[in-house]
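# step 3/5: fold
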Amino acid sequence: MRKRPLFFAFLAICAGIWICETLLPNHIKNFTTTGEIYLTANIVTDPVHKTDAYGRAAVTFTAEAVSIGKAQSSARGLVNVTSYDEKDAALEYGDYILIKGNTSRLRAPYLARRGIYSAVTVNKSGFISVIKKGSGSCFTRNIFRFKNKLRILIREHLPGAEGDVLTGVLLGERSAIENDLKGRFVQTGTVHILAISGLHVGIIAAIFILMSRFFYVPVRVTYIVVPFLLIAYAVLTGANTPVTRATLMASSVLIGRAFNRKVDILNCLGLAGIFLLLINPKMLFDAGFQLSFATVISIIALAPGLETVLGCDFEKNRVIDYLKRSIAVSLAAWFGIIPIVAYHFNMISPVCILANIPAVFLLSLIVASGLVFLSVGLTAPFLAHFFAGAVEFFIAALIKAVTVFSNMPFAFFRTHPWNTAEIISFYIALAAMGLTLYKKNIRKYHAAIALLVFLNISVWGGVLRCTKYDVRCTVLDVAHGDAIMLEFADGSCALIDAGKKIRGLDMGERVIAPYLLSRRIKRIDAVFTTHNDNDHAGGMDYIIKNFNVKNKFDSYNLKFGDKITGFKGADILVLNPPDERFRAVGSEENENSLVLKVVSGSRSFIFCADIQDQAMASLLAYPGLLKSDVIKVAHHGSSLSGTGEVFLKYIASKIALVSAPAGEVSEKLINQLVESNCAVYITGRDGNITVELNNGKICLKFN
């Protein structure tokens, strides 16, 4: 009978997942594809001000749709809105608005898990007008207005990187932190410092309790009031999964103690998990949910045993004991999240065991001094500068420590996303090793066997990965740019271009590297840089530095007639540039970009880079070389001249691949291709596009 509540909770969560997957007919997702849209909606989040990859100021928020189109047809569902109009900086939670902008569907799984399937971008041709202010929860609206005051206060006194870090640490906004700095935190396994998590909630709860004792507030009153303060703080920071989990657990513990109830941490953890999953069952698949719960469980399960192994003794030397216990907790947490980090982020960071010791200590100082600074700034602004200096010092020390650890040899290494077998076998091995810490009925060689099973699954899973194709071509979705991965039957591979790099947005790091790791590719036999435009060559430096690249080719060391061999079942022919390079004013790089043709048996692919009229006219002299089954369309699907139209007819492909956002592709080009019975696929609409060639048969896959 005692197990029935768990059974019914499980049924409720399963039913919730099914309901989440079943969208209403008037859901916004069913109305939006691409193009201009009119939408009335309520802003349901605190608008965030940020700078995008192109250096443009933007405000972004989530809105709940009410109606769509000029006819105002009823609509429901969440939509992600980004505006580049300065006037929209004054928007706030609860505004009922009319939006005119360009819409697109979102494919990001983490947004879908939050019920967001569509995006609207408001540029110069669009607008946002406020129909009514003051909708939504009065409590939430006032919390967000208070948050904006804190945001302004931080920006006034800490305008640099330290202010960005403090905004992330206390307010939960990381968008302003430079990607390079954020990357150092990721590499050292300390990125949780920048995101509001259970650690932050615990520190803040401890500060509230200490303050109440200083002012002689009765203990029971403290334990009842603090949970409400934590709930307000959770709303202030956006109530993400780790914060909500920690707030629920801390509130359960404090209220239990207020009424002299025995508190079981695992029961509190389970209660928090069930509550979160009942609200949003899809959260089960969210990285934040998994990391938050895995961290707590592993610390509870492993830390005491590791403390015993390390010989912790508070009575002998408090400093040494603190360090040993910190290492035990850090080690336990790291063991628990290794598979999750490997699966979601393709990374393992051993240095985090040491890096988290000073990072957590400094975080405590930053949170405490940061709260004092904000309190003084709101009540006695003329004194805020002095306290801001202390906060700045602690944050600078944190950044320095993280930088030192990130530069250590073997601080981190990249890995493929672990599969289900690897994750399960690792946790079995971890459980076996954990039981040996407590001298349970398990022998050490049992743990060793479990570990060997995991290692065998991990190593042989890559070695025995079979290839059921002669050529596998994947055009990656790198927005406006090119990145094409070629894989061959013998396991060899080649990369054509690597997308753009603008400010902190590096497609080599953000898109291509994760894809290569997902395919267990660490060695690339050849990379081709078709030309030096940023949207083709920007991400190549990252790939060359982080992968074992055997051969590097570009439009200066290859020319018409060259052939690259060594790939089983296929050859790569060079069709452009010619022996004597084109001299095209304003488009010389494009006209001389590499045109490559991959030939496998009777089938072929042609990749046209960014060539224009001169190069196309030159290639028309060799009609026999042009005909191909699959074409990667030139210049991201821009409109073609008469020469370009003839060029496409000579190629006579049945499949056309366009690497560009869907809204940028020429309608005239699409119509011409469709009229010639050619299927058109666009990365901005279809995601990563894979064409597999096997024994002359062509198969398409999308991701």
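# step 4/5: annotate
Residues 422 and 455 are 8 Å apart (CA to CA).
# step 5/5: archive (pending)
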